Fold this protein.
Amino acid sequence: MPALSLEREILDLSRIKEASIVVNRPNVDWNDASDVLSELAGDSKGKDAAVVIHAPRGESLSKEEGIISVIIGNIRRRLPNVRDMRVVGRREGETTDHTVSLQRHQLRVKAQVDDGAPAEEQDESVWVAVRRLAAEARLIVRGEAPAPEPDISLLPVSEPRTLQDAGDNDSPGS
């Protein structure tokens, strides 16, 4: 599931040179996704679809229409069917390209496990992380997720965080 940071990272690019997306057929048919790529895949009776678009030299792809709109529309879906996506561009004032990818912006949490703790405590640390991840995913799927902030628990893969509170109410069966 895409992290909330993915859309922000795409929109932060001032010049987009290349964008690509691969989508899988959602559920039973393509009717669950309403974009031109999914429509084409459905009409073709395909199981997945991929597209890559390059901007003309020195120009940028549109953020409001075209492939960027398709990418953002797909990642905003409550149950996205994006298998892979990548956007290459530059941020304002930067001289090198930056790649934004689904691989680096997955919803995740990291469990801090004490190797010296009893196995039951180690298991509990992992279960706390699993429940936290499920709670965050549930908010996104229900459309109730808060706007991303710099210290949000959903960070790109390149910036892992540790669980700092194990909470007394987070034990199995409570």
Summary: The two ends are 26 Å apart (CA to CA).
